[in-house]
C-alpha cells in the first residue's frame, strides 16, 4: 500500500506517493513514515532489511539509502526508527548497526557505535527505540543494555584515559597537576604513574618514570605539582622524591640532606612559584617555605612559626600579587610577604570575627584582572577587601555547588571558574 497525504480538515486524500512501486513492484510491506522539519519524508520497513527511503515532495525525488548506496551509505540495512535532532540531522536507529547520523547539508553519514573501552559510548548496537525530548536530549533504548542518552551541550569535556587495549592512550588515570609549555603542549603529573607529556597536534602521550638504576630519570613517580618557568624548564614537585628540574634532556634532582642546612627542607614538595623578581619559591608538606637561589643551588628556609615567618608547616598554595607581594596559603590561614617591608602579614579565621577568612584551610589563591584576590578554602570562597583589610565569603547558599573550593581560574571574558567536589561554577 502506497503512502498518502490526507487533508486533516476534510479527511480527503490529496496525494498518493507511488514512487515506491518502482522499488518494490507489488510487494506488500509495513512502512513507517517520518516527516522532518523541512516537510521531507523518510520511510523504512522494519521487517525488511532495505535501509531507508528519502522523498522530497517539492521535487518528487526519491532516494534509497542503504549499505550499497554511494557516496552516502548505512552500516546496517535493518532500520527500526528515525528522528531529527536540533541541528536537523537525521538519526537512523538500526538493529546491530548502532545509530547512523545523516547530515542533510553535506549528505554524509557518521556512525555511533558501542566501544567497550569507552563508558560514554552507546551502550549497545541493537537499538529498539529512540526519542528526542523538549530539551533536545536524545534517549536511546537498546536491546539488552538499558538506555543511553545524548545532548550536544552535556558533553563539553573530551575524556582522555588509560585504555589497556590501546597502547597510545593515556598511561595513567590518577592525575594531580598540569603545566603547559610554549608550544601549547601539556605536561601531566600523575599520582604514581610518573610524568606524562601530551602533544596536542598528534594526541600522543609520552611517559617518563623513575628508574633506580638511571640517575637521569625522574626522581619519583608520585608527582604533586608542576611548574614551567620563564626559561621553559619544567619543575616537578614529588611526594618523598624531592624536587626535579627538567630541561628537555635531563632531570636535575634537589633532595633534603640532613648534613646540608642549605638543601631542600622537605622531600615532599607541594607548591612551586617563580615570582617577577626571579625568586623561586617552594612550598613543602611539613617544613614550611623555601626560596631557591638557582645560581648557587642553595635553599633559604622560612620555618613555621619562626619570628617574621609563616604560621604553618604545610604550604598548600603560592601566589604573587600585582604589587610583588607573595601570598602563602597553608593549613593555618594566609601569610603575605610584603615586598616593600620584607615582613609577613597574617590572615586567618579569627574567632567571632565576621570579616575574617571563612576557614583556615587554604586550597587555592587567585588575583583576578580587576585586582581582587580570591581565596578558596575547605569551607567557602573568599574575596579580599584591601581597603577594609577584610574578607567576604560565599557558600552553597550563594549559589556554589559545594563549599570546598579546589581551584579558581579566570578566563578572557573575566569570568571566574570555581571547581568543587560537587562540580564547577562560572561566576
Describe the structure.
- This protein is mainly β and 427 residues long.
- The chain folds into two domains: 4-150, Methylamine Dehydrogenase, Chain H; 175-426, YVTN repeat-like/Quinoprotein amine dehydrogenase (Methylamine Dehydrogenase, Chain H, 7 Propeller).
- Helices cover 1% and strands 41% of the residues.
- The strands form ten sheets. The protein has a four-stranded antiparallel beta sheet, with no helix packed on it. It has a four-stranded antiparallel beta sheet with strand order 7-8-9-10, with no helix packed on it. Strands 14-15-16-17 form a four-stranded antiparallel beta sheet, with no helix packed on it.
- It starts with a strand and ends with a strand.
Q: Catalogue the unreliable spans.
A: none
Query: Which strand order spans the largest sheet, edge to edge or round the barrel?
Result: 3-4-5-6
Question: What is the radius of gyration?
Answer: 31 Å
Query: Pairing-aware structural class of the strands and helices?
Result: mainly beta
Any idea of the CATH class of the largest domain?
Mainly Beta
Number of spatially distinct domains: 2
CATH architectural group of the largest domain:
7 Propeller
The fraction of residues assigned to DSSP E strands is 35-45%
Most strands sheet: 4 strands, antiparallel
- The CATH superfamily of the largest domain appears as YVTN repeat-like/Quinoprotein amine dehydrogenase
**Helix residue percentage:** under 10%
Large-scale geometry = elongated
Quick description:
This protein has 427 residues and is an all-beta fold. It has one helix at residues 21-24, and strands spanning 4-6, 13-16, 32-35, 41-44, 52-56, 61-65, 79-84, 90-94, 99-103, 108-112, 127-132, 138-142, 147-150, 175-180, 186-190, 195-199, 204-208, 223-228, 234-238, 243-246, 251-254, 269-274, 280-284, 289-293, 298-302, 315-320, 326-330, 333-337, 344-347, 362-367, 373-377, 380-385, 390-394, 407-410, 416-420, 423-426.
Amino acid at each position: 500500500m502506497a503512502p498518502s497525504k490526507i487533508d486533516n480538515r476534510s479527511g480527503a486524500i490529496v496525494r498518493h506517493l507511488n514512487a515506491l512501486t518502482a522499488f518494490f513492484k507489488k510487494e506488500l510491506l509495513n512502512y513507517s513514515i517520518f516527516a522532518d522539519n523541512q516537510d521531507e519524508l523518510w520511510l523504512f520497513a522494519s521487517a525488511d532489511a532495505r535501509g531507508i527511503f528519502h522523498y522530497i515532495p517539492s521535487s518528487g525525488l526519491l532516494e534509497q539509502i542503504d549499505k550499497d548506496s554511494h557516496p552516502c551509505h548505512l552500516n546496517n540495512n535493518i532500520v527500526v526508527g528515525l528522528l531529527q535532532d536540533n541541528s536537523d540531522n537525521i538519526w537512523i536507529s538500526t538493529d546491530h548497526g548502532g545509530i547512523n547520523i545523516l547530515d542533510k547539508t553535506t549528505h554524509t553519514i557518521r556512525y555511533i557505535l558501542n566501544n567497550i573501552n569507552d563508558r560514554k559510548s552507546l551502550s549497545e548496537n541493537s537499538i529498539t527505540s529512540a526519542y528526542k525530548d523538549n530539551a533536545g536530549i536524545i534517549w536511546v533504548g537498546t536491546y539488552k543494555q538499558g538506555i543511553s542518552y545524548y545532548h550536544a551541550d552535556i558533553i563539553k569535556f573530551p575524556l582522555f584515559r588509560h585504555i589497556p587495549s590501546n597502547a597510545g592512550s593515556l598511561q595513567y588515570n590518577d592525575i594531580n597537576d598540569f603545566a603547559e609549555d610554549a608550544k601549547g603542549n601539556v605536561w601531566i603529573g600523575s599520582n604514581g604513574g610518573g610524568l606524562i607529556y601530551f602533544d596536542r597536534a598528534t594526541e600522543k602521550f609520552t611517559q617518563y618514570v623513575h628508574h633506580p638504576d638511571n640517575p637521569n630519570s625522574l626522581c619519583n613517580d608520585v608527582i604533586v605539582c608542576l611548574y614551567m618557568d620563564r626559561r621553559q624548564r619544567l619543575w616537578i614537585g614529588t611526594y618523598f622524591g624531592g624536587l626535579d628540574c627538567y630541561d628537555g634532556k635531563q632531570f636535575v634532582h634537589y633532595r633534603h640532606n640532613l648534613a646540608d642546612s642549605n638543601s631542600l627542607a622537605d622531600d615532599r614538595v607541594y607548591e612551586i612559584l617563580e615570582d617577577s623578581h626571579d625568586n623561586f619559591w617552594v612550598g613543602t608538606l611539613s617544613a614550611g617555605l623555601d626560596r631557591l637561589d638557582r645560581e648557587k643551588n642553595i635553599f633559604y628556609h622560612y620555618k613555621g612559626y619562626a619570628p617574621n615567618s609563616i604560621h604553618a608547616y604545610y604550604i598548600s598554595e603560592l601566589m604573587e600579587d600585582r604589587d610583588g607581594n607573595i601570598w602563602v596559603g597553608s593549613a593555618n590561614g594566609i601569610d603575605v610577604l610584603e615586598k616593600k617591608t620584607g615582613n609577613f602579614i597574617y590572615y586567618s579565621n579569627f574567632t567571632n570575627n565576621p570579616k575574617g577568612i571563612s576557614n583556615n584551610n587554604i586550597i587555592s589563591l587567585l588575583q583576578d584582572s580587576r585586582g581582587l584576590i580570591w581565596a578558596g578554602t575547605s569551607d567557602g570562597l573568599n574575596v579580599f577587601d584591601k581597603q577594609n583589610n577584610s574578607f567576604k565569603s560565599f557558600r552553597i547558599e550563594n549559589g556554589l555547588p559545594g563549599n570546598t573550593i579546589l581551584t579558581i581560574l579566570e578566563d578572557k571574558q573575566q569570568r571566574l571558574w570555581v571547581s568543587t567536589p560537587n562540580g564547577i561554577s562560572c561566576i
